[in-house]
């Protein structure tokens, strides 16, 4: 029984640690000090004036990535740091995200003290979005959709109308407007992250109805006029048909009378 309890406790602890690891690995990058784009270059400042007798170490998280004892490089390359001892990061990739921290020693003594560290986050630049438009079935509303890359769906989206200085209130993927309010307006969207910003080409709605007419006319439903007009047309058609029949009958009687006289 005691063994079972120990096993249950061990399983609970393992599950808790696994959850903690998952949260830490997938959590948001809100604690980043600096953001940089993939492929770019970033220099982490040392914040200390080096002497020739100083030994310099640079850490990425807990791992030493550069070590120079006075003028001799033990780990890394000479070009990994500049003349001031600041760390140069080139051709950045996402795996270079992390916390960078320097240490300066002389004769085994930490002469640099608690030097500031930098938490760097490397992000891909956003792709240029595109805008598509969709008309409602009754052609009274139009929806503009800002299409972004799969990895950019969580990035903020802003909508703008051409010739209007301020952005639209909506910050979502889809922007819906009544057609009558945006007959000639052109809309474009902007998507951005911490390292870049891209804007789409402007798009104009094309949902104009082929036969637009108001719902009412002089306060009376338009369908009353439509029904009345249809009734008048029907009466006119009947009158024309009756006139044609009477004309044919008269012509037939006239021809018959001529034949009798002959």
UniProtKB/TrEMBL annotation:
Organism superkingdom: Eukaryota
Subcellular location: Membrane
Gene3D superfamilies for this protein: Immunoglobulins
UniProt entry keywords in alphabetical sequence: Glycoprotein, Membrane, Signal, Transmembrane, Transmembrane helix
SUPFAM superfamilies: Immunoglobulin
Name of this protein: Ig-like domain-containing protein
Gene source species: Pundamilia nyererei
Gene Ontology CC annotations of this record: membrane
Domain Ig-like: 129-204
Cited InterPro entries: CD2/SLAM_rcpt, Ig-like_dom, Ig-like_dom_sf, Ig-like_fold
Chain ranges passing through the membrane: 217-245
């Amino acid at each position: 029984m005691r063994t079972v309890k120990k096993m249950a406790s061990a399983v609970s602890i393992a599950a808790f640690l696994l959850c903690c690891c998952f949260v830490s690995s997938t959590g948001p990058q809100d604690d980043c000090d600096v953001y940089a784009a993939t492929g770019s270059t970033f220099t982490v400042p040392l914040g200390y004036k080096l002497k020739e007798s100083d030994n310099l170490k640079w850490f990425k998280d807990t791992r030493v990535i550069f070590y120079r004892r006075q003028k001799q490089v033990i780990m890394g390359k000479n070009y990994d740091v500049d003349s001031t001892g600041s760390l140069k990061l080139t051709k950045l990739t996402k795996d270079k995200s992390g916390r960078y921290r320097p240490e300066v020693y002389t004769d085994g003594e930490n002469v640099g003290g608690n030097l500031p560290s930098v938490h760097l986050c490397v992000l891909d630049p956003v792709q240029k979005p595109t805008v598509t438009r969709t008309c409602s079935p009754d052609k009274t509303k139009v929806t503009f959709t800002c299409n972004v890359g799969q990895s950019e769906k969580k990035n903020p989206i802003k909508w703008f109308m051409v010739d209007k200085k301020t952005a639209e209130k909506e910050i979502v993927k889809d922007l819906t407007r009544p057609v009558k309010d945006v007959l000639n307006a052109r809309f474009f969207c902007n998507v951005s992250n911490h390292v870049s910003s891209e804007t789409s080409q402007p798009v104009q709605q094309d949902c104009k109805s082929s036969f637009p007419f108001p719902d009412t006319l002089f306060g009376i439903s338009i369908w009353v006029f439509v029904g009345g007009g249809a009734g008048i047309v029907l009466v006119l058609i009947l009158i024309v048909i009756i006139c044609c029949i009477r004309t044919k009958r008269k012509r037939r009687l006239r021809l018959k009378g001529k034949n009798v006289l002959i």
